[in-house]
Structure formats: structure tokens, C-alpha cells
Amino acid sequence: MKTTTFGLDLAKRVFQIHWVDMETGEIGKRQLKRDQVRPFFANRAPAVVAMEACGSAHYWARQLTGLGHDVRLIAAHFVRPFVKRNKTDAADAQAIWEAVQRPEMRFVAIKSEAQQGVLTLHRVREQLMKMRRMQVNQMHGLLYEFGAGVPAGPHGMTHAARALTELADTLPAMVIETLREQLQRIEALTHDIAAIERRLAAWQREDEAAKRLMAIPGVGLLSASAAIATIGDASTFRSGREFAAFLGLVPRQSGTGGRVKLLGISKRGDVYLRTLLIHGARSVLTHQKQFSEHLQHLLARRPFNVAVVALANKIARTIWALLAHGRTYEHGYVAHAA
């Protein structure tokens, strides 16, 4: 008996399903309310269920996998070419059904609840960092209008508080009070960010994979935890280069007539993790005293930022190798071809 393939278009309330009966060839289309999705698939024989990797996709993937189905998540930009007409729920479900049957289609690894929990901490921290950066920059600009120069960065807020005390006799009380409230908000954001980092550190102490990743030069707490949570299952990628391409750390290609031109990095995939790896690579090249022969030659013939991205690419490949093969980091390790 052939396995039935379902294309499931996710939504908040109304879900659309598309499938073809393998015995009769009849095309099935159906709308389901949110509370009807699980009972519908619970009464079906094990099948292939395809969904776009969008909001709530990993939750439904875990739910349907628990029912015995083979769930496959597809990136949204891989589904779009199969939409034949106007974008509707029915057209999207049919496009998902067609896309999942392509032999070379790539799928997104299903994340566990623990991995999504770690990503949640990272997303909240990232937003708090942006909010604090906005508040700090505004504080600098407002104090500068009154002739008070404050050192850059959140650490300069101590000088900002001192400047407010000095300006208390010359500025209106309502201005001083408002700026002090701004300082309190910055302090509260800093406290919240530190609390999230403590939670990540506590998780890292109990996770063996994170400990192994942090042995890589340029990989710290944030990079290690974000990498583990973002990758999901490392076996999804066939090689370290595929993982680096997933992060957008490989060159874009443009070619015709058999001639291929390499451009800048593609910048595809997860921006957050790519940024962390590039910052880690820059820290290594800035603070490390001794470099390998490869890095020495690279820095001698290429600009510094190009070398930073190249090192970030190498770090990404190393992360994949440690996770995919369960290895520990070895300085100077050289892979041997089979």
C-alpha cells in the first residue's frame, strides 16, 4: 500500500488540507478548525504530512509525529514557485503537497521543545538589546543637546547619571525627572538581559553538546546555545559546507555559458546566528596572539573583514562536525579523505 501525502497549510484558526487518495486517485480538499486537526490525523493511517516552516510549524510537527506520521517541513520560499494561481489557503496547501514530492527538496529539521525554549530566550534577549540600544542612543543625544558628553555604550550611563546631577540646577525639574526615568528603564533592561544570560548559562552547564562547542575558539555561551537550538538535528545537513550555506556564509554565484563568478556572501538563513559567529571570529582575529599558518596567509592577502567571514565559515563547519559526529574539539585537527 502506498503512503498518502498530505499538504497542510497552517493558520491560527482555519487549516487547509490537500491530498490525493492513493487507491481511487480522488483529490481531497478540506478545511479544519484548529481543534479538528489532531483528531483528523489521529484517525488516519501513517502518512507523509508536509507543512511550511512557519509560525507554529514545529509545534504541529511534534504533535503529528507523536501520532505516527512522517512530518516534513519545507522553507516557504521553496513552496512559493508551486503556487499556480492567486495565493489562497487551498492553493498553498496544494503547492505544499506538490513541493514535498520533488526528489531534491530540502527539509527543515523539527525542533524539540527544549530547543525552541532556548531560541525563545535568545529572541527575547535580542529584542531587549535593541530596546536598550535605542534608549541609550537617545540618552546620549538628549544630554549632548545640553552640552554633556557621555561615553558610548550602556556602560556610559554612570556618567549620564553624574551629568544629570550636575545639570540639576540649570535644567527644568520636569526634564531632569524624565531623563532619570529613562536611566531607570535602561537599568531595568540591563537587569533583564543579565537574567536571561544567567538562565542560558545554567542550561549550558547541563548540556553536553554546548560544552563541547564552547571549546572552539570564537564560540561562547550565546553562539553555542543558539547554534544547538537553530540546527535542530545536525544530520539534516550533509556536510559542514551545507550548514555554512544555510547561514549565508558562502559566496553567491552568478554564471552563464559555463563561467561562474563568485560574489559576496549570500547572507541567507538565520541572521542572528550568522552575526554571532562573525562577531566571534572577529574577536579571535583581534585578540588572539598566535595564528595558524592558514590564517596568517589569509590575513596577508585578503582584507581583514574578508578574513573574519572566512573564519566564521570555518567555525560554522566545525560546529556542524562536532554536532553531527559527536566529537570533541581538537586544536589543529586535519580531516583525512576516505
Automatic annotation (TrEMBL):
Chain ranges of the Transposase IS116/IS110/IS902 C-terminal domain: 211-295
Origin: domain of life: Bacteria
Domain Transposase IS110-like N-terminal: 7-145
GO annotation, biological process: DNA transposition
GO molecular function annotations of the record: DNA binding; transposase activity
Coiled-coil intervals, chain numbering: 179-213
Keywords: Coiled coil
NCBIfam families, per the entry: transpos_IS110
Protein name, entry field: IS110 family transposase
The species this protein was found in: Trinickia soli
